[in-house]
Amino acid sequence: MEFKEEDIADVWNEPPRYAIITGANTGIGYEMSRILAAKGWHVILACRNRQRGISAVNDIISDVGSHARIEFMELDLSSLDSVCNFVRRYSMKLRPLNLLINNAGIMLAPHALTVDGIEQTFQVNFVGPYLLTSLLLPKIRGSASADFPSRVVNVGSVAHRWAPKQGVILNMTTINDPSNYQRWGWYGHSKLALMLYTRKLCRDLMYENVYVNCVHPGVIRSDLFRHEGSPCLTFESLRDSRVAGEYFPPFFGAAGKLINFFAIPFYRSKASGALTPLFAATSPLVTQV
Ligand SMILES: NC(=O)c1ccc[n+]([C@@H]2O[C@H](COP(=O)([O-])OP(=O)(O)OC[C@H]3O[C@@H](n4cnc5c(N)ncnc54)[C@H](OP(=O)(O)O)[C@@H]3O)[C@@H](O)[C@H]2O)c1
């Protein structure tokens, strides 16, 4: 089954429906915001950089029209204070929250600790979204009805398979230790944690009108590969990870760029990557995983 933009219901004539999308200034998040705004949703672009966030809002308004209900709110998932401030500011607006899409993410970043002393990929991809969702949950629950269930969509990745073999590591000393750091392995680890959190939320909310799902958007040409200095995956990066190194021997490094060059056209567009999470976010066919 192919899900298309036209399949997303228009909500212009309903009471305002509110969606928060994290990491919405570029990539898949930007496309999801643009599409939902065109369908009449009130979209909050939750981005870490004010200038990039406002510029994305303006671009969407020029695309959709000045009637678009769209705004920027600052949120940096690498700071737990920023997450708490965001929730405080959203709560002060006394609005419902019908949809939360935890989309923001980083991949293959160099090892670094956040201001909270947590390895940055783990915090941005899991700890930040976990705190954000937990704090917004009363609002999400309170906005849900049988006619219009609330939804949480976590943008995961098949890369959860690259997580360390023992599964989610619960020891922060091990997670933070630079000598353990594997760029692919730690990205997979953060996505595995997000997926398991999704399952827990599903169980907790089983008897409520709140649907929680986790989706892989496909392999998309986006800025996600920015830490590689390349728009796409390189075999060098795979080889760099000790986990992936078990599968990709060193000689792949030399051939990687060439293979990659031919693979780029097969990567999906950002707009197409947006449709999978939006299917989980809006389709009446989707309830709970
Ligand atoms: N692209 C793929 O092939 C692919 C495959 C599987 C899963 N995914 C997942 O899809 C999601 C979106 O990725 P994308 O491909 O659209 O990547 P992208 O183009 O790099 O967009 C990532 C977004 O996350 C934001 N972000 C990064 N760090 C943040 C922080 N500390 N606080 C708040 N926002 C932050 C970025 O903001 P700035 O622009 O300010 O950095 C950007 O808006 C990610 O969760 C990714 O893991 C992507």
TrEMBL record:
> Which keywords are on file for this protein?
Oxidoreductase
Q: Name one Pfam family in it.
A: adh_short
Q: Single GO molecular-function term?
A: oxidoreductase activity
Family of this protein: Belongs to the short-chain dehydrogenases/reductases (SDR) family.
What is the name of the protein in this document? Answer: Uncharacterized protein
Q: Which organism is it from?
A: Guillardia theta (strain CCMP2712) (Cryptophyte)
